[in-house]
Fold this protein.
Amino acid sequence: MSHPILQRLISEHLGSSFVPEPYKRLFDDLDIALRQLSADTFFNSMAEVFYSVSMQNNRNSELLQMSPACKSVYGYNAEEFFTDPDLWFKVILDEDKHLVTSGMPLLAAGQTTDSEYRILHKDGSIRWVESKITPMLDEHKKLVRIDGIIFDITTRKEAELARMQADLKFRALIENSMDAITVSNDKLVFTFASSSMSVITGVSPDEFVGTSILKYIHPEDRERMGDLLGLLLKEPGKAFLFQMRIKRSDGQWRWTEGYVSNLLDEPAVNGYIANFRDVTERRQYEAALEASNAQLAKTNQELDRFVYSVSHDLRAPLASILGLILLTQHEATDQNLLENLSMMKQSVEKLDVFILDILDYARNARMEIKSRKIDFPEMLEQIKTDLKFINAADNSKFDIRIEIEDNDAFYSDRKRIHVILNNLISNAIRYSNPQEENPFVEVKIYFDSCGAWLLVKDNGIGIGEAHHEKIFDMFYRVSKKSNGSGLGLYLVKETVEKLKGTIEFSSEPNVGTRFLIFLPNMMP
């Protein structure tokens, strides 16, 4: 009588563990009943399926018992298993049935079997189960009964399969990556190398494993590698960028670039892990680009000197010539001479305009944008003064109309805006319509939250539609009679684009021309 409940009752009511003889059999029966009750309670509450099958008379389908847990594991209750003794085998997926039948010879020999297979749950889902079967043999070594227990291991198997899929995906990514991936131990000996290493070095990954990194690093890069190791030991887990040369199997040195991390303390890695790629061609391109940039810088310096020379050495003689022409015109009385001097003056002025356009083009292309507050009234007054004596059919009659909206918060490059407005207004004067009684150019400047709008409109001779697509081309002139350089409108468009703006154009012969320009506010 060892059942704890029974022992407590005896102790509480009899005052000791001694049981009088008349009650002994009664207590023995109670002990057996209590033990059976405990076993039944455990059998009915266990989460695993417990079952017994009689194997007498070569029959393997006489189910002796089946625990209630079969309802959650299989979806079928115990009565359904007793009704159909082969149900446990029917629910096993066909491709997994051999995992069960292959264990029968072992059971017949008295050996316990353990297997994992899939079943079709009653709700249509597929479940993974683990089966442990213990055989019972009679005195003649004949199998008479099997006792089994079934565990639902679906969650565990799904986790294992997910991990396996992740491992396969990760390995596929590594093996198909253009980047080489290596792991080396604390002695700088390779313990792993991906297949891309053979592409970079011509050496198979298996040949790398067990060899030292120093065998492949360029001698001039080993000091840099020592500095890198110091950083890796100081900050484990942090990735550091590196560039080093690695020796190929054919003796060539290839530049590589990548990241390396110290993961010596990570049990899954236990080493320095690096991923890198061959950047030799890029390094060669960068070297060529540096040489090209150096040559370009030299060329730009020479261009700066040329622009300075043009500005001072060419315009100065032109100014002298123009002064002599004006002086001669003032003193001469011969009409033929005056006509010749007038043509000379026009040619000199035309050449000077061309030089100024070239200078403006060079400055626009090379100078950085300098943003400052723009005073449009002051700028336009200066332009009017500069263009006062421009060569035109009857400049004295020409009217420059200006309308500027109040704004003191617009910032941009003053010199470039001056070039834009000066070119458009001077063109309007040069190409004014001689038949027009009141020639004019109208300049309107207004603002919005994004920037400034510049409207320049005239009633000049206009431009035919056939020329509209080409007027912004370099050196394009509408006709041979045009006295401009062919750079003015090209320079206007280039300057607007330099300032990240937009320009719209429309024109009609004998009606006039209209330009609408938007310039963004470059307020600092």
